[in-house]
Amino acid sequence: MNLVEIKRKPDFPAGKVAEATFWVETFGCQMNKSRSEHLSYRLQELGFSPAEESGEADILVFNTCAVREHAAERAISIISKFARERKEKNPDSIIVVCGCLGQLEREKLLGKDREINVLAGTHNWEKIPLLIKKAWQEKVKIVDFQEEPPSLYEEKGYRYSSKISAYLPITFGCDNFCSYCVVPYTTGKQRSKPREIIEEELKNLVEEGFREVTLLGQNVNSYGRDREREGAFEELLLDIEEWLRGIKIWVCFLTSHPRDFTEDIVKIVKDSSVLCPYFHLPLQAGSNKILQLMRRGYTREDYLNKINFIRKSIPSARIGTDIIVGFPGETDSDFRETLDVVREAQFDVAYTYVYSPRPGTAAYLLEDDIPVCEKKERLHILNDTLRSIYQEKLPSLQGKVMEILIDQEEGGLLSGRGANNLRVYLKELSSAEVGEWREVVLTPGEGNKVYGSVKR
Ligand code: SF4
């Protein structure tokens, strides 16, 4: 179904593109942030200008996320608040809602807030800038959805929100259908960006002076498989190494999938001068029973073998993960198995969540049988365990020398990240500047922060 509903409001004067400003508010993951950067680029191409702040914008775009119920509700309440406020501040402004929540819960959004001027989803992404232009110029209301995702992913052009670090999406969509996840429903099957476009974009980023590039995808390790190319991610990493030979730049990648992550990836990173030794491998659960119910395609043993291989091959590597507690059927003993894997894997970074049933997913049909207080208790125990692992590892950093890329200044305090994604705060005021690489000597400090003294 391709639904377009247009209602004229003849009393509104036609909006002039050249004078109109836009603001894109993004919810959710890095992929969504990158999609907002592409949307902003396209809006600028059409003649709109970025606003200094959201309250001033003539066109306010909400690029939404549907991955968790809480995030979806928060987005709906923020959109409603803006819709009410803008009536007083800038009554001629328009509100655009797009992204995963638009794709998944359009009836809810239309029913809740009739102030939305453009409502769209994810499958018609490339068309959204033109819908916005039409809605702005003609002051009409547009509801537009495409049920089928596009078959190719050839998105080009981004208005980067940083001058130092850039996202470079290499795949969009996901073929995995993990039982709890809405992503395959909101974004469609995996589409890989052609290698030539990646090469061109990467070289442009080098020319523009970016210091760090993060390759993005829901499952970067399966890059190219939709084009029937096994091992294409490993080949892409080798190509990147070749394209960037002799250039000082860091390249990271997010997110890996433990089933598709190979030892070859670790070996390529180990021998590389540009690829960063940070691996984000979402565990999700440590019990084989729950992993099977989640349809993750690996066991705790497979997972730990891969972690051990990383630790053995690249001792300075850091490993991040995502974990869900309270999945339907998770017993105390399943949860303890998750804690065991967490202790053995010695994670450096972890994002932890309480299971949130999402309509349309396979797990939605399972009884959400863990009481909320139990889920919260498990989350609390898990976070305590992760915190103590982190604290136990901190002293080993004392006196280590590490190169960091300075990328932030907050309240006069500079900080940067090592290639392994460790954040380091500069101890004293120095001549260092954002965008520079500096060697620092590490000292673990208060509040689990790591400080560094500039060596050179
Ligand atoms: S791999 Fe699983 S969790 Fe990740 S985006 Fe795909 S379906 Fe969702």
Keywords, please?
13 helices, Rossmann fold, binds iron/sulfur cluster, 20 strands, Transcription Regulator spoIIAA, alpha/beta, 34% helix, 23% strand, 456 residues
Describe it for me?
The chain has 456 residues and is α/β, with parallel strands linked by helices. It has four domains: 2-146, Rossmann fold, CATH 3.40.50.12160; 149-276, Transcription Regulator spoIIAA; 278-396, Transcription Regulator spoIIAA, CATH 3.30.750.200; 398-454, Nucleic acid-binding proteins (OB fold (Dihydrolipoamide Acetyltransferase, E2P), Beta Barrel), CATH 2.40.50.140. It contains 13 helices and 20 strands. It has helices at 30-45, 69-89, 100-104, 106-112, 128-138, 183-187, 195-207, 232-243, 263-270, 288-293, 300-313, 332-345, 372-393; strands at 2-8, 21-26, 49-50, 59-64, 94-99, 118-120, 140-146, 165-169, 171-172, 191-192, 212-216, 250-254, 278-280, 318-325, 349-354, 401-410, 413-418, 423-426, 437-444, 450-454. The strands form five sheets. It has a seven-stranded mixed sheet, with helices on both faces. A five-stranded mixed β-barrel has the order 16-17-18-20-19. Strands 8-11-12 form a three-stranded parallel sheet, with helices on both faces. A hairpin with a 4-residue loop joins strand 17 and strand 18 (423-426). The longest helix has 22 residues, at 372-393. Bound molecules: iron/sulfur cluster.
Topology:
Blueprint: E1 2-8, E2 21-26, H1 30-45, E3 49-50, E4 59-64, H2 69-89, E5 94-99, H3 100-104, H4 106-112, E6 118-120, H5 128-138, E7 140-146, E8 165-169, E9 171-172, H6 183-187, E10 191-192, H7 195-207, E11 212-216, H8 232-243, E12 250-254, H9 263-270, E13 278-280, H10 288-293, H11 300-313, E14 318-325, H12 332-345, E15 349-354, H13 372-393, E16 401-410, E17 413-418, E18 423-426, E19 437-444, E20 450-454
Parallel strand pairs: 2-3, 2-4, 4-5, 5-6, 6-7, 8-11, 11-12, 13-14, 14-15, 18-20
Antiparallel strand pairs: 1-7, 9-10, 16-17, 16-19, 17-18, 19-20
Helix pairs in contact: 8-9, 9-11, 12-13
The structure holds iron/sulfur cluster.
